[in-house]
Known about the structure:
42% of the residues lie in helices and 14% in strands.
Amino acid sequence: MHLLLEGSCAPPRMAELAALADEALAFHRTIDEYAPTPCHRLDGLAHELGVGSLWLKDESSRFGLGAFKALGASFAIERWLRDHPRSGPVTFTTATDGNHGRAVAWSARRAGHRAVVFIPAHASPARVAAIEAEGAEVIPVAEGYDAAVRQAHAAAVARGWVAIQDTATPGYETIPEWIAAGYWTHARELEPFPHAGARPEVDLVLLHAGVGTWAAAIVAYYWHRYGARRPRIAIVEPTTAACILAGVKAGAAVAIDATRRTVMAGLDCALASTTALAALRESVDACFAIDDAWTLAAMRRLSTPTGADPEVIAGESGAASVAGLMALTTDPVLAPVAEHLRVGPESRVVVWSTEGATDPTHWEAVVGRPVPA
Ligand SMILES: Cc1ncc(COP(=O)(O)O)c(C=O)c1O
């Protein structure tokens, strides 16, 4: 499953996002736990996959939460509280596959408020426990992630709670935009790029997507920073949850079959964010989908490096863009995508490991040893 695209237009509201992203970065720098996450050079893996160089931004240490998501949730909660200075105790609510809910719970607690998190009933016990450890109430939803999103919004309306949701629907766009602005910090930490020199410094960026908010934020960053000289950009999704691919094809957000599961829990979404989809359909060069086996292989490969590559601990969703690169460079079915993206021995590639071992039991089962202390 793939789509080759033109990538001909900058995403809408890029200037507004850039201004908000300045605010977000300034806010993040006030957080005690804030520190830029590392960007590793993986020469061993680059050589193996036949690309010129490979850089991996590693979110496993972000805020002690193991994923990038709090960059968005913390800024959205900060912005909401700034706009509502006289509010008493606030209950923030959200739906999650794990990481965003933990991020909302952590951010609400830091700000002295409460959180209620809706989560698919099939979520891993470790991910539920991590959210509860932040003091949040967790409500399981039997029908899965997209139903949890609907329930969180309904609860917010019925109970006077504030929904901090990382996916936009018509009429609910401001908070997702604040979250996206927070995600820009993730990309901004790459400045100056480690092997800065001749411009542009990067040829290809692979971004994985759930509802697409994170990918759309990073795409907007690249368009804003590099304009027409931006690197080529591709979106990677699980085959069973490729809602961006389906939405780009249909020209609008369409609900795909929500009953098919993927091990990439954070990407297990059946309906794309409307604003993210509107941005991605015009501004990226390809979308393609990969089976779960690729991300399991990427988790194993990152944990057993070759040459001077560091060990990277990546969760199932976290490893997805590395998995995408592995598939792109080795699976003949994706050869047209690799050709369209001009992947080859000269390519300088950036991938993102967006989470660490957020489900340690499953990581151990996949990799065959416990998560290192
Ligand atoms: C680890 C990880 N990576 C990537 C994503 C994708 O983000 P988005 O849903 O904004 O596409 C998620 C979403 O939860 C995630 O948990």
